[in-house]
Structure formats: C-alpha cells, structure tokens
Amino acid sequence: MKTFNYHVPKAVKEASKLASTSSAFLAGGMTTIPSLKLGLATYKDIIDIKSIKKLSGIKVSGKSVTIGATTKHAEVAASKEVQKAIPALAKLAGNIGDAQVRNRGTIGGSISNNDPSACYPSACMALNATIHTNSRKISASKFFTGMFETALKKGELVEAVEFEVPEKADYQKHPNPASRYAIIGVFVAKNKKEVNVAVTGAKSSVYIDKDLSKKLTSSFSSSSIEGIKLDHSEMNSDMHASSEYRANLVSLYAKKAVEAC
Amino acid sequence: MTKITLEVNGKKVSKDVADHTLLSVFLRDNLNLTGTHVGCDTSQCGACVVHVNGKSIKSCSTLAADIDGSKVTTIEGLAKDGKLHPMQEAFKKTHGLQCGFCTPGMVMSAVDLLQTKKNPSEQEIREWLEGNICRCTGYQNIVAAVKEASTKM
C-alpha cells in the first residue's frame, strides 16, 4: 500500500478544509482500505472523520429516522428505535457483508461510495431519504448519479441520512455467496402517497423501477406484479448472473418483499 | 508517522507507526503476535479477525493509527494462566480445525458471537461465520465447536 498522510480532524469544518483532489474521507474503511491495498486508489491524504462526534448516532421522530454518517451497520441493525420505526432498514443493515464488516462499515461511507451492489442506496431511494451534507440537503433521487458517483463535491461530506418512515417496507436481497453484496436487492416502501420499488445490483447504479412502483401504487399486492417481465437491456451481465436472470430476480424479489410487508 | 498507544492482550504498548500501517501488520511485525493470520488480504477470509474494544473486526482492513487508544485482544490473549479459553478447548475437542490457518480468525469471531448471543442456533452460527472462510472446508466441526463452547461459556 502506498503511503499517505493520516488526519484526524475533530470538526467537520476542519475535515472539509483538509480535502483536496487527492484525498479521501475515511469512516469504516471497508471499501477504502481494500481499494488502497489493491492499488485501485491512491491518496495523498486520508481524513478520518470518526472523531467528529456529531456525525454518529440515531434520531427517531414520528415521521423520520435520521442516522449519522459514521453510525455503523451493526448499530443500526441493533437499534430498538430503528427496528420499531423502519424494521426493513434494521434488517437491511443486519445483512450487509459479514459481522466484522458491520462492526466497522458506516452508512455515510456506503452511500458516498455508491457501489452499484451496495444495499443502503436502495433504502435511500425507496424511503425518499434526504442526505444532509455540510453544505446542503440533497434528495436521494439526485444524490446517486452513476456507478461509484454521487452529487458530492470536493470537501463535501455526508453528515446524516434522513429517512421518511413508511407505512410498510421490506428489503429482499439475493446475495453473492462470497462477498454478500447484492447480486440484486429490492427495497419496497409503501409511503403515504406512493409505492417505491428501489433496485440495487441490477444496473450501473441504484434506481427506482417505475413499472413495478406504478403497479404497486395502484394496487399494493403481489398479484398486481405477478409474472411481470422487466426490460433487461440495461442490466448487468457478469459471471454471477446474466441480465435476463437479474431481471427475473428483480420481479421475483419485489414480489417477495411485498408479501413480507 | 503517528504515535499510537494500545492495550494489547492486557499490556500497554506505545509505538510510532507509519500512517499506512495496517493493524494486522502492526500486530505481526511490530509486536510479533503472528497468531493473527493474513489470508486473502482483501478482507473476505477472516483469518485476521481480532477484537477491538470487545468487537470482532478484520485487522487487515483497519489502520493501526485508526484504533489509537483502543483495547485489542488477539488469539494469543485468549488463554489465561496456561489454560485454554473454552472456545479453544471446544475446537480441540471437536476437531474444529484441519490445517489451522483460518482457526485464529474463526475462534475470535466465534467468541464475539457468544458475547452477544448465549445459545446461538446452528443457522445463527453459520450466518455469523459468513466472514470466515475455511479452505479445508471443515465447517461441520467448526460449527460443532461453537455449539460445544456455547454450553461452557
């Protein structure tokens, strides 16, 4: 691994000031450190944000669940408050990677990295999340802009993610048996005004499946999406699953999620 | 360089480390605690699992500087006064190891499981050990070992 300078700022302002075109913010490091080791990324400065106290923690109000950027997956999974307000979100967090990854990995890191197979982005999309950064609020639908790409600018840091509490929701994942990343993952949320079906793992970035969402908005039952054939032309095809197979899994897992709601 | 102070297996250590030093490298090369193994080096195999402040983590994907001030327990820190930890005893009793390479990580992960869940089911044990790979494929006896230990811990 190439050398870098390690910084531990105590405040967001300080962290943001240290950022450059050759820096990375470090939270759990579950992607950043393996990437550095494999030489997939090199940085002059690593800015560890875990000592910034206000970035960690969970706040639940009647209408929303707000999770601080450096809150670990294991903490979200074990939170009684999250389990009560949005059980699907706690379940999603409890199935990311493995136990050791969940003891280190964070929500802010996961969404800032925007891996096309990561679980959290689907929850953000389906639950109309608002991403709070140190300079603005970004709706999830504008935050995830492409494969490993987000709307974040240089020096901009995710501080917290605010999820809307849905009427019902569920997340169903078909994990890669080795890495536990989603070959596909489907987050179904029945919100007050609409049903959102967010899909991860299937395309280059997380997206809302409009067909499934529309059908479920008019009638929230698995029979309304029974046997639906999804367009697979933009779906990923790799050694794990062909695009046709992924398309089939998405409709199947959407149905499973509706039934589990 | 960063000066870090840790408590490793009950002993305080203070050392200067290069900023990019991994915890696994620090334990093995600086403290000579070679029981922590490095298998895949891509954080999938779990041979490098140690406890930091009581929680299991993968030391090959953690910077030593990142855990400054923490308490670390490695496989060398489990046995007390020459007596094996109940989890180590259980692995021995049920033949929960073949080549032994994955064993330190398996044991450290399993100890963390039993700290949070007293009597895990076979399914829960298998799910918890998802991040630990045994290439001898000796999983049956590893699961049996954790089951056995759960009756003793």
Write the layout of secondary structure elements.
The complex is a heterodimer of chains A (261) and B (153).
Chain A: E1 5-7, H1 12-18, E2 23-26, H2 32-37, E3 45-48, E4 58-60, E5 64-68, H3 73-78, H4 80-85, H5 87-93, H6 99-102, H7 107-113, H8 120-126, E6 130-133, E7 137-139, H9 140-143, E8 144-146, E9 149-150, E10 158-164, E11 168-175, E12 182-190, E13 195-200, E14 207-208, H10 210-218, H11 243-260
Chain B: E1 2-8, E2 11-17, H1 23-30, E3 49-52, E4 55-58, E5 71-73, H2 86-93, H3 103-116, H4 122-128, H5 139-150
Parallel strand pairs in B: 1-5
Antiparallel strand pairs in B: 1-2, 3-4, 3-5
Helix pairs in contact in B: 2-5
Question: Which fold name corresponds to the CATH topology of one domain in chain A?
Answer: Enolase-like, domain 1
Distance between the termini of chain A: 45 Å
Q: What Rg of chain A, in angstroms, do the CA atoms define?
A: 18 Å
Strand-residue proportion of chain B = 15-25%
Radius of gyration of chain B: 15 Å
Distance between the termini of chain B: 41 Å
What is the H/E string of chain B? Answer: EEHEEEHHHH
The CATH level-2 architecture of one domain in chain A is identified as 2-Layer Sandwich
Name the helix and strand elements of chain A from N-terminus to C-terminus, one letter apiece: EHEHEEEHHHHHHEEHEEEEEEEHH
Description:
The complex is a heterodimer of chains A (261) and B (153). Chain A has 261 residues and is an alpha+beta fold. Helices cover 31% and strands 24% of the residues of chain A. Chain A has a domain at 168-260: Enolase-like, domain 1, CATH 3.30.390.50. Chain B is of the alpha+beta class and 153 residues long. Chain B is built from five helices and five strands, in the order E-E-H-E-E-E-H-H-H-H. Chain B has helices at 23-30, 86-93, 103-116, 122-128, 139-150, and strands at 2-8, 11-17, 49-52, 55-58, 71-73. Chain B has a five-stranded mixed β-sheet with strand order 2-1-5-3-4, with helices on one face. Chain A binds chain B through residues 1-6, 26, 29-30, 33-34, 36-38, 46, 48, 50, 74, 97-101, 103-104, 178-180, and chain B through 2, 18-20, 22, 41-44, 46, 49, 55-58, 60-63, 65-66, 109, 112-113, 128, 130-132.
